[in-house]
Amino acid sequence: MVAHGINPSQKKQEEKLKQKDPTTVKTFAKRWLTDIVEKSNRDPCNVTRIIEKDIIRIIGKLELEELTTAHIQVVLDRIKQRGSDHVELLTRNVLKRMLAYAISRGIIFNNPAAAIEARYIAQATSRDVALTAEEIGILLRGIYTSNMNRRHKLALHLLIFCMVRKSELIEATWSEVNFNTLEWRIPGERMKMDNPHIVPLSKQALAMFEELKFLAGDSPYVFPSRNDHRRPISKTTLNCAVRTLDLNVRDFVIHDFRRTASTLLHEQGYNSDWVEKCLAHKIGGVRGVYNCAEYLNQRREMLQSWADFVDAQIEEGRKVVIGKFGKAYEINN
């Protein structure tokens, strides 16, 4: 061998590699997650969700060496059909990075994802999503049947009920919640528009806050961090929790909960000023002069009706205990 310019040690190593079982996309994706993503990415759940929901599900059984640009395009086309250009672009980027790592390990010799240029995919842009009533039911049933932390389940449910921004909820303190007046008063310094905001609590929301009070122990925060009860949970915690869900609904972000509530309440014929006030939006024109009244009684009735409506969507075809928050906790045998 040496006489013919062949390194026996190298030849032996190459033969050994050939004898190994073929590496599938699924096997290597999980290896990449463990070796690279989880060690270098502070928030790996988004990458994990993309790999498990789309990549492994569609092309996971293929051998890595057999993977072509056409296979990858099938994955991207499936995502496009869901109406999510943003996720399509993210998935292409994830595959490109994963396959680059496979090249560095000597498993493959070219990157089929690199052939799909980003300009051929619609650029990631914000898109307005208002979930349907049916999708609300699917979402909440999925949340409560998942292994998500109980407090995070309640947080997502409260975001739908209360129509507040995510930061306004996760940074809430117990000094803001009044169990006697059934109100949550958010100080101006925590609001986007710097104006104090009152959230009338439905009976369901009140019961959730009561449970959260027990779960929070002696923390001043409604949603204390697991590592330090003197601080609230991270701003990315709920996003990460949502990304782990595998649901038959359109791709959405948490902020879409506010748009969803607004859309459905308007469809049900509620006064636009009441809805806008629940969203803590400034009411323009002459109507804004009367904003000091806050439509509190009207909003209280509307938010109770909204909570009952959401309950009804959860009830539709479910068999899951979510807690004693109204009709939703009653199980049909």
TrEMBL record:
InterPro entries xrefs: DNA_brk_join_enz (IPR011010), Integrase-like_cat_sf (IPR013762), Integrase_catalytic (IPR002104), Integrase_recombinase_N (IPR010998), Phage_int_M (IPR053876), Phage_Integrase (IPR050808)
Q: Name one GO molecular function term.
A: DNA binding
List the Pfam families. Answer: Phage_int_M, Phage_integrase
Q: Which residues form the Tyr recombinase domain?
A: 126-303
Q: Where is the composition biased (Basic and acidic residues)?
A: 11-21
Q: Which UniProt keywords apply?
A: DNA integration, DNA recombination, DNA-binding
User: What is the top-level taxon of the source organism?
Assistant: Bacteria
Which Gene3D superfamilies does the UniProt entry name for this protein? 1.10.150.130, Intergrase catalytic core
**Which Gene Ontology terms describe the biological processes this protein takes part in?**
DNA integration; DNA recombination
Which residue ranges does the record annotate as region Disordered?
Answer: 1-21
Membership in a protein family: Belongs to the 'phage' integrase family.
Protein's name in the database: Phage integrase
**Organism whose genome encodes this protein:** Enterobacter roggenkampii
